[in-house]
Predict the structure.
Amino acid sequence: MHLSTLTIRNFRCFGDSGKPFELSLKSGLTALVGENDAGKTAVIDALRFALGTTDQDWFRLEESDFHQNDTKKEIRIVCRFDNLSSRDQRAFVEYLTYGDTAKDEPVLYINWLAVDTGTAPKGRPFRRVEIRSGMNGDGPQLAPEVREMLRATYLRPLRDAESALSAGRGSRLSQVLLQTGEVKASGIGYDPCVQTDPKFLNVLGIGDFANALLEKQQGINKTRDKINAHLIKLSLHGDELNSSIKVSGANASPDNRLRQLLEKLDLSLGFGSKPDAGGKLGLGSNNLLFMACELLLMAQEDAGNKLLLIEEPEAHLHTQRQLRVMKYLQEQAVEKGVQIIVTTHSPNLASAISLDNMVMIQNGHAFSLAEGETELNSSDYHFLERFLDVTKANLFFARGVMIVEGDAENILLPTLAKLIGRDFTEYGVSIVNVGGVGLRRYARIFQRHDIVKTGQLGIPVACVTDMDVMPDCGKLIIKKELPTKGELGKAGLTAKRAALSEKTTGQTVKTFIANEWTLEYDLAYFGLAKDVYVAAHLAKRDEALAKQGKDLDEVTAKKEEQEALTAFNSLEQEAINNTSNGLADGCAYKKLLATKVYALFTTGTKASKTISAQYLAGALEDKKLTPDAWREVLPLYLVEAIDYVTGAVDAVPKADG
């Protein structure tokens, strides 16, 4: 059996404004991703309330658990279980819901209802809780033994694994061992009439054998005799008082005696063949041990709910261990039939999880990224499986996403955003650098296949791309095989822009195309020609400057900058002369100058766009301009893209009305 659908009404951030929160789940592993306070923990806690957990943890329903707009003060959580085995069907037979035909497999609904009835006598709040079966909660109430079979295993965030695996009354380790078949099946019981080598006894037999030895121990019996001697002197004539010393709990049931023995055990961790010789290990290693215990138990269960809830499996683990854990969890989900739901804030883990198994929780709604739910096609999924790495996986946790095609944009755009008063770190914007490949594939992650059914993701996504059409004078200077604006004409340019935009734009995804040509060209064209030229000059000299290392002083750097400024002044004057003398082949001064500046990146000893962007970002940060002044000298398409991803997008799904 596996949990296929979770429906939540009026629980914390999940309201009931026309359409409740609904999460569809596949068997295997599901990862819930999204920014803080999106509702990931609320999903896990809803399952904990409805199903209970194997650690028997008890938690109180608080007033804050009711949605703030819920005037009825009524929470309803519905879990639907599909794919019930014949053994599951026998275990839950009186609680099953059957379809209209004999071919329909029975399903199990768990309806958890909590109602705040107001204040009870003595001023204590009273909240009535019912747990019933049936699609609408009209089936019989669940018996305690049935509830036990439905309990999920829960690993809390920032868990103290060492304490959980330590000895003590009700320890988690004793619970795991008690339910593990090998503990009861290995060895034989103790029979006082049969002499048996203790090493062949089972755990309970060892305990019984130890109890028998303890009761017959010579020192204890001599002490008992002394107590009896005093007792005789204290008793009246004819009284036959006599004491005995027994091991406490020796006459309890076998299960209780076994539990008491297992509660004496600790589980510790070390290295190699001497686990006790490694000293105390860190929280991360102990968390791995804790997960191993829980997975061992779940893998052996034949019936009931094999559901594992893990909040932040990355807790206390470094990057390589995070990836190893996620790989193993996915393997266990497939091989052992364990259903796993994890919440994570880790791009490392997100990059290791198939998109088909991910759900974005955003503004109290669930958006599955499985095939058929997004605008991604099969080819897109295969592509992203290979190329959606940890540097790009931060898109799952952002309030806004900017997708760019190169390192230069990746370096410069955060600086430009800060200069116009839209610092990406303050607005929660992530940049995804696709390296010129697959820009539209990444954008389609955020586009829903059926927006009427699921609503749209309220995350603004800006795709920033070049125009790839040269100014008319471009061929004379740069000699690239690209069409010119004159060749395309006004209608052709309009059609090309529309074609570029239509490939990606839709829902909350918008395409921002360079106003003129490329990033570097447009920066030069709109007012930063001198700065771009100096940055390109320094980029060409970067290797030579780097070789000087610590000997590079401020005088040397200033000398290089001055040399670049002198060369730019000459270039600028040449552009003025060529324009005034009609030698610019129809290009106005701004276009001619920008083209000559851009030539540094395309002809001769080409300047690196990436290194130039580093120099340019530093130079622009040193300028003392107001945000409004910066908006006047930056390309319009960049300003609009930055404003879009840092602005608000209507995130209310259409399905909610």
Summary: Residues 650-657 have pLDDT under 50 and may be disordered. The longest helix spans residues 554-580. The CA atoms of residues 30 and 522 lie 44 Å apart. The longest strand covers residues 107-119.
